[in-house]
Amino acid sequence: MRGRRLSSIIASVTAHAVLMAGAVIMLTPFLWMELTSLKPPQEIFRLGLHILPREWGGAENYGRVFSDTPMLRFLLNGIVVCGAIVILQILIAVPAAYALAKIPFRGRGLFFALILVSLLVPIQVPSLFLYLGFARAGLLDSYASLVLPFIISAFAIFLLRQHFLQFPQEVVEAARLDKFGEFEIAWRIVLPSARPAIGAFAVFSMVAHWNDLYWPLVVVTDPEMATPPLGVVFFRNQESGSDFGALMAAATVISAPLIIAFLAAQKTFVRGLTSIR
Amino acid sequence: MIAMHKLVLRSVTKSYTKGTTVLKPFDLVAQSGELIVLVGPSGCGKSTLLKLIAGLEKLDDGQILLGDRDITDAEPRQRKIAMVFQNYALYPHLTVRENLAYPLRRQKLRMPAITEKVAMVARQLRLEELLDRRPSQLSGGQKQRVAMGRAIIREPDLFLLDEPLSNLDAALRTHVRGEIRDLQRRLGTTMIYVTHDQVEAQTLADRVVILRDGEVQQIGPPQEIYARPANIFAAAFLGAAPPNFLAGRVINGRIDVGQASLPFSDLPGECRTALAGREQVYLGLRPELLRAADDHYGDHLVLHGAVSSREIVGNTQNVYFRTDTACADMTRLSALAGRYLTDELVWTTENSNTGDTVKLAIRPEDILFFDAEGQAIGTHGSDTL
């Protein structure tokens, strides 16, 4: 009895030690960014390792972020672009996934295979064609060019299809007999059971597009249209590029919304992830 | 008051890919208000038939009429058919109240009318206490009642029930069975009820349809199928236990069954003519129609057997015995009956018989006769179509 208790304590301590080591590895660069954003320039390049700033340069660094760049504009752009992407992705993925999971039709397997294949194609592959298309249409430097390439998410369709497959076919059939149309069945009967999946997907997609630098870099040159990461790039180019304190302050500002959102929704998020089978 | 909606199926066929026939041409007329039970082993096509009637699957050929409407190609939502599924298929994220009310919103009813109807159905099915619960908070029996409620609230022209009791425990099953029958009688709505349980078939049905491998074996009232099964399969399916099957040989105006013998003169007239000219026949003896032959049973078929085991069920007991007249080819018989049969015979009796041997008799008119193909002889089977 005592032996078992001891071994379970050892197992628990080991597990937590491993997890904590992982947490330290992941959090250190982040913490470093925060601390650097609080240091004045001369201290950043001083030899020797000082974890805490000796002089506080935070006010100046953060002040520069907001005075030298339209940071609020960047954040607003980020919210508009990511919000539009996620909403449109879900609007398109739900009916598509429902059809693939619950409506038998000729060629369904082929469609699904094509969607799986498209999961393997990164945005870099069609980016030239997309760029030319947007340029021809005069849509460069617009929200449309930032949002449209991403509104069909093969991943969302795949994820939701797997969830919808688990939904009992009889309930769908009962709804058909109860005179519901297919769209209504998809949105009002089947979708509520996939809420955790939708939530988890929304978080993933939001984070990916909020942090995306590649595509905004391709289609946006006007700082007015820049998303937060692109804004930081512009900020660096404008200045000498050596003011790391201010750069880290900018990086802190743009990652703050996601961190606050995550902390607020932590429980829901974890539940959503763990319920995906 | 009772809506007249009879259901007519004409040569309905269905096969899935690769030429596997699920349903051979199927004909059925369910009279208005009739309760038809489709029964058969799993995979016999009974659930498929239900889905075809509901419009959830397309038929290959044939015609379906409901009332005076041809609904062969109608969408499910155009059919005015309500279905109760084996796993109840309640809308999982809605409360009982919403589950009941949801189908009504499609019928463009006003809110007060919906509320009133929900209250009425809830009262009928004793759901008042449960209205604000979700399906996950209900027991099996309660879910079943909600599923029934959702079906009747729409006042459909036809009810389809797909094994509605199979997820309930035995005691509840008997109870709910009675409730379903009462409800159907009260509403007078035509009902097609699918089950693999012959007890449900016998207790509920106005008429039973026995299906095997997508093919109708017999259609008729349960008592009639019990008394005059069309073939060995139907005989074995309907009844607490399958009949005891023996092989008989027709010789010179009598049938020899091992040591025993039965002169034609003791048989009913129709049997006599049908048996004449045959050689090999099968006899089916219902276990509950055998009786101890202590007294004089002049014209009865008499069997002698050695008891191998007994089981006691309440005030009856099943006595298992073997006899020298036992049928030889059990493999063949098992195939015809669609179930595994042994050469051990059964006698179901209320006697407290304890001996090592039995001497049993059966009235000639209680014996079922089948030809070598398993088809009934001498009983002009009921309306097979």
UniProtKB/TrEMBL annotation, chain A:
<feature type="transmembrane region" description="Helical">
    <location>
        <begin position="110"/>
        <end position="131"/>
    </location>
</feature>
<keyword id="KW-1133">Transmembrane helix</keyword>
<feature type="domain" description="ABC transmembrane type-1">
    <location>
        <begin position="75"/>
        <end position="265"/>
    </location>
</feature>
<dbReference type="InterPro" id="IPR035906">
    <property type="entry name" value="MetI-like_sf"/>
</dbReference>
<comment type="subunit">
    <text>The complex is composed of two ATP-binding proteins (UgpC), two transmembrane proteins (UgpA and UgpE) and a solute-binding protein (UgpB).</text>
</comment>
<protein>
    <recommendedName>
        <fullName>sn-glycerol-3-phosphate transport system permease protein UgpE</fullName>
    </recommendedName>
</protein>
<keyword id="KW-0813">Transport</keyword>
<keyword id="KW-1003">Cell membrane</keyword>
<comment type="similarity">
    <text>Belongs to the binding-protein-dependent transport system permease family.</text>
</comment>
<keyword id="KW-0812">Transmembrane</keyword>
<dbReference type="GO" id="GO:0005886">
    <property type="term" value="C:plasma membrane"/>
</dbReference>
<feature type="transmembrane region" description="Helical">
    <location>
        <begin position="74"/>
        <end position="98"/>
    </location>
</feature>
<dbReference type="GO" id="GO:0055085">
    <property type="term" value="P:transmembrane transport"/>
</dbReference>
<feature type="transmembrane region" description="Helical">
    <location>
        <begin position="9"/>
        <end position="32"/>
    </location>
</feature>
<keyword id="KW-0997">Cell inner membrane</keyword>
<keyword id="KW-0472">Membrane</keyword>
<dbReference type="InterPro" id="IPR000515">
    <property type="entry name" value="MetI-like"/>
</dbReference>
<feature type="transmembrane region" description="Helical">
    <location>
        <begin position="143"/>
        <end position="160"/>
    </location>
</feature>
<comment type="function">
    <text>Part of the ABC transporter complex UgpBAEC involved in sn-glycerol-3-phosphate (G3P) import. Probably responsible for the translocation of the substrate across the membrane.</text>
</comment>
<dbReference type="Pfam" id="PF00528">
    <property type="entry name" value="BPD_transp_1"/>
</dbReference>
<feature type="transmembrane region" description="Helical">
    <location>
        <begin position="185"/>
        <end position="208"/>
    </location>
</feature>
<feature type="transmembrane region" description="Helical">
    <location>
        <begin position="244"/>
        <end position="265"/>
    </location>
</feature>
From TrEMBL, chain B:
<keyword id="KW-0472">Membrane</keyword>
<protein>
    <submittedName>
        <fullName>sn-glycerol 3-phosphate transport system ATP-binding protein/multiple sugar transport system ATP-binding protein</fullName>
    </submittedName>
</protein>
<dbReference type="InterPro" id="IPR017871">
    <property type="entry name" value="ABC_transporter-like_CS"/>
</dbReference>
<feature type="domain" description="ABC transporter">
    <location>
        <begin position="7"/>
        <end position="238"/>
    </location>
</feature>
<dbReference type="InterPro" id="IPR012340">
    <property type="entry name" value="NA-bd_OB-fold"/>
</dbReference>
<keyword id="KW-0997">Cell inner membrane</keyword>
<dbReference type="InterPro" id="IPR047641">
    <property type="entry name" value="ABC_transpr_MalK/UgpC-like"/>
</dbReference>
<dbReference type="Pfam" id="PF00005">
    <property type="entry name" value="ABC_tran"/>
</dbReference>
<dbReference type="GO" id="GO:0008643">
    <property type="term" value="P:carbohydrate transport"/>
</dbReference>
<dbReference type="InterPro" id="IPR003439">
    <property type="entry name" value="ABC_transporter-like_ATP-bd"/>
</dbReference>
<keyword id="KW-0762">Sugar transport</keyword>
<keyword id="KW-0067">ATP-binding</keyword>
<dbReference type="GO" id="GO:0140359">
    <property type="term" value="F:ABC-type transporter activity"/>
</dbReference>
<dbReference type="GO" id="GO:0016887">
    <property type="term" value="F:ATP hydrolysis activity"/>
</dbReference>
<keyword id="KW-0813">Transport</keyword>
<dbReference type="GO" id="GO:0055052">
    <property type="term" value="C:ATP-binding cassette (ABC) transporter complex, substrate-binding subunit-containing"/>
</dbReference>
<dbReference type="GO" id="GO:0005524">
    <property type="term" value="F:ATP binding"/>
</dbReference>
<keyword id="KW-1278">Translocase</keyword>
<dbReference type="InterPro" id="IPR003593">
    <property type="entry name" value="AAA+_ATPase"/>
</dbReference>
<keyword id="KW-0547">Nucleotide-binding</keyword>
<dbReference type="InterPro" id="IPR027417">
    <property type="entry name" value="P-loop_NTPase"/>
</dbReference>
<dbReference type="InterPro" id="IPR008995">
    <property type="entry name" value="Mo/tungstate-bd_C_term_dom"/>
</dbReference>
